[in-house]
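Handout, page 2. Input:
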Amino acid sequence: MLLLFFFIFGKPEVLHFRPNVFGEMMRVLTTPSEDVEDAINWFFSGVEPDISLHMRMLMNKSIRAAQAALNCIRKAKQNLGKSPRPRVVIVSDTPPLVKNITPNINKFAEVIHFDYELFKGNISDSRKGMHSLDFGMKDWGPAPGWIAFVDFFLASRAKYAGASADHRRVGTTYAQLIAALAAANNPGDKPTGSNFAFLSSFQGDLLREGLRFQIGWGHVWNRFAGPLAPLPPCPLGCHNQPNQCPFTQLLPPAWWDGLWQFPLPRDIKKLAEYGIQLSRFGTIDENYLDTFCSTRKVVVKTVPFLL
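Output:
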């Protein structure tokens, strides 16, 4: 993994390890602007976090979600095994939640959180006159839009683990990108790759009802979003559990990579439009797909003309 990392992004001290085109493009996308970097440096002051916690609560103050997040942080701390009191950076769209959960985490870890109202920099001064739209506040919280970029790079500085703990959406694209960038920042010395761990926090309601409210094919648990059994619907087979914190893949497989385990009825209906008959257990009828493609194939007939 480390050699592939150097092949893409290059290694400045070695001449033959020059970044390729994709590496240059990715470096631009994953490098903060000067204003964002100023905010990051002001916040950290040279000391980076061990664990990051991302909680997108959609302005909900769920106690169960907070308790499940605590369970995930404890699990990450156990796997850390080095720091007796790790530093945990919390990123959330719901500021009151951060204040409520901080005392509980402070019992076994040090909590750090970026308070944009205390930061005095170019990026904050240039946007003082701008106000968030109502629909944006309901979805992303009351903080200015630039906070999402700062929080993204703050959370991606975590050295050992990242946890995604949300009210009803777990392993979102935002959380996946944070974990992927954090793993890239810590490639590790092992042949197996990064030492970074990505965790997903499931509260009891999600274990019972599944992820039917999590729209889109981009989230990491999409293949396990549908019901496992008719009664009760439990996508991960976690009956009567208050919460769960499984290790999560940084690059999850898509449905075309193999069996789609327990898909949502919505996705089954959507794929049927493309000729893919997907069962509740993720099996695909290959014969039906071949027939569907054959009937839709445009046949071009060539008729010769004698001039």
